[in-house]
Amino acid sequence: MSDLFSGADNARNTPLADRMRPRVLDDIVGQDHIVGPGRLLRRAIQADRLSSLIFYGPPGTGKTSLARVIANTTKAWFESLNAVLSGIKDLREAIDRASERQRLYRQRTILFVDEVHRWNKAQQDALLPWVENGTVILIGATTENPFFEVNRALVSRSRVFQLKALDGDALMLAARRALADFERGYGGLRLSFEEGALEHLVEVASGDARSLLNALELAVETTPPDGAGEIRVTLEAAEESIQRRAVLYDKDGDYHFDTISAFIKSVRGSDPDAALYWLAKMLRAGEDPAFIFRRMVILASEDVGLADPQALGVVLSCAESFERIGFPEGNYPLAEACLYLATAPKSNSAMAFFDALAAVDKEDAEVPSHLRDPSRDKDGFGHGEGYVYPHAYREHWRAQQYLPSGLQGRLFYTPSRIGYERTVRDEVLRKREIQAAALLGEAAALPGDGEYLSWSLRSKGVDAWVRRVESGRTRLLLSVRDIMMDEAAPKRHERLLVLKADDGLFVWEGLRRVPEGLCAACVSSVAAREALLRLAASADLDETELPRIAASSGVPSPEEALKLFDCAAFDCVLVREPWRKVSAATAGIFAASAARLLAPNGRLVFLASPPMMGERLSRIVEGAAAAADADAAVFAGLIPALKVAEDGFFSAPPEDGEEESLFWDAETLKDGFRGTGLDLKIDVIEQEEERLITERDISAWFNSEKSRWGGAIHGALGEKAFETVKTLLAARAKQGAVTWKWKSLLCRAVRRG
């Protein structure tokens, strides 16, 4: 036979439960109904005349132990597979070995498959022919009912033996054997147990010998000997070892509160049987049904909540029904309310209200101006100005500032993954992502330097917010995100790094795309990092699932990345709009830095918008002039002159002391990427969005002293033409949003080999 389990008996560093596994039939405890004297299975094992078997029972009842006994007893070769870790390839190799042994040595093979129910139908079907023709004798072990979870054909060709949870006597016998065994247990130690300690371990083990022996080992190994060398295990140590306190009954306690507490906790714990028992006990003792209904109404909101919004209505209806009919028929609506709550999905997300209440107590913030009632002070104080009416949009929603300015980014509500709340969770999180992007991101209206005809999310006040919200930037950001993510095409297990990730959109989408890999991000400041982590908290993610976010400017070195993210090489690196002004040299530095972060065949995907490919005010003003029926002679000379002036500005070389220029395109990037080990592919994509232009924008753009754009255009056109352009643009701005068009470069660079 094989050496399955060999060496475990004498290995003192193996767990006690493994060392104490039965070696012969007489070592097995608690399964006399199948291996007791004269039983069929015992006779078959002793005679080494086994047919295919399936052992079915709860964990810790001896399924693997029986396999061990058979391995130690049979003359057949013993092969072992675990269905969790093995597949068809492993099965075929085991079958090949069995066929070889049968052909050469006429030796039978017993194949033990632990957790056999974990194999799918195809895997179980692959085993069937070899069981049928006798190449292997199957012994399967499963915690699930084999008549439902195991191939019917396999079950029909096997004898099914059900192992039962061990009773207290069997568990106590197993514990005392371990304490007395000199070779494998603690027979060589001076051991004693405080009254009730060993009994507590037996009771709480709930029929699981493995759980009992693990707890026993922990209790003994963590209890130091006293001065006389005796290890005395206390009841407290036993409780800590098995992580459950001994059950104590205080018959002189407050019956009323203890029993309602047991009822509430049973309902909260979704145990309808226990809930009915405590309900019956309260009613039998004469508890007021109104008190019970009052507690169930609270529970419907506190513990069921939005996981099942109908729960509250059901309980209220049952309470009203009871009021109408009274006892004894009133027991039915009492029981119905109890069972509905006990079986309903649970969510305590409504507790978020108390976090909001704590925030109010800490800071009584003012209502933002655009949310105030405009009926009284609109003209005098501008109350209500800038409010965006959600129903005016197709989705009946638009990102907008609703919290006070001092609480922006603060999250109170965390939607659960249970019941009805699961259906709204994704939408709540999606809207939060967009809201955060509008608050945290950095978006420029013109693809040019931040100063030139642009606005930024760093702008303060409601005016800046309204520009962002009504401009349609939400749709643009989502579109760009999806285009870049599709171009990068990260696989589920890959490592993704997002640069300039302040707005978070690529971070959240990255988490969805690489759930089994890594999503890391660099942001501009510690404050931005904290804001994104607060938003991540609302997704209720496990710590291991959270994105790794670090405040880091530029492209980190592999050494910095290792320190920040525990990862020095990435499969994908993403960045949106890395530059406004750039040169081939600085693009080359960026490419070389990114290449050092990429794993072989890793992808760098970035979207860049050269100012020379951007929108021109000459096009906007041309339409405005036509609509305003401007003087034809002025119009004929003004627009061409403005076009020439704009082209000249965006194609100007760097000023003294500046290396980067606004005048760059795809060829500039290609020149910079040469010799960096990256194969660069560039596609041109056309973009547009509806944008609002405000008086503040126009004043900033047409300031010939403070704005480099304004100074250049003023110098090219002269004062009169410059003011005419400003007037035409202001007139167009009052008519509403303009369609802003530009072209961007979608770039994908792959690190060779």
Task: Describe what this molecule looks like in 3D.
With 753 residues, the chain is of the alpha/beta class. It is 48% helix and 12% strand. It starts with 15 loop residues before the first helix and ends with a strand.
- Tally of separate helices: 32
- Biggest sheet overview: 7 strands, mixed
Q: Given the C-alpha coordinates, what overall shape results?
A: extended
Low-confidence stretches: 1-10, 245-254, 442-471
Arithmetic mean of pLDDT:
80
Question: Gap between N and C termini, in Å?
Answer: 49 Å
CATH architecture of the largest domain: 3-Layer(aba) Sandwich
Q: What's the Cα radius of gyration?
A: 37 Å
Q: What percentage of the residues does DSSP assign to strands (E)?
A: 5-15%
**CATH class term of the largest domain:** Alpha Beta
Strand order of the largest sheet: 10-9-8-11-12-14-13
By CATH, the topology of the largest domain is Rossmann fold
Number of E-type strands: 14
What structural category arises from helix and sheet content? Answer: alpha/beta
Measured as a percent range, the helix fraction is 40-55%
The tally of structural domains comes to 5
Write the layout of secondary structure elements.
Elements: H1 16-19, H2 32-35, H3 40-46, E1 53-56, H4 63-73, E2 77-82, H5 88-105, E3 109-114, H6 121-132, E4 137-142, H7 146-149, H8 152-156, E5 159-162, H9 168-180, E6 191-193, H10 197-204, H11 209-221, E7 231-233, H12 235-242, H13 255-268, H14 272-284, H15 289-304, H16 310-325, H17 331-343, H18 352-362, H19 374-381, H20 419-440, H21 461-470, H22 473-488, E8 495-499, H23 505-513, E9 518-523, H24 526-537, E10 548-551, H25 558-565, E11 570-576, H26 584-597, E12 598-608, H27 617-627, H28 632-650, H29 666-673, E13 678-691, H30 695-701, H31 708-717, H32 719-733, E14 738-751
Parallel strand pairs: 1-4, 1-5, 2-3, 3-4, 6-7, 8-9, 8-11, 9-10, 11-12
Antiparallel strand pairs: 12-14, 13-14
Helix pairs in contact: 5-6, 9-10, 9-11, 10-12, 11-12, 13-14, 14-17, 15-16, 15-17, 16-17, 20-24, 22-23, 26-29, 27-28, 27-32, 28-31, 31-32
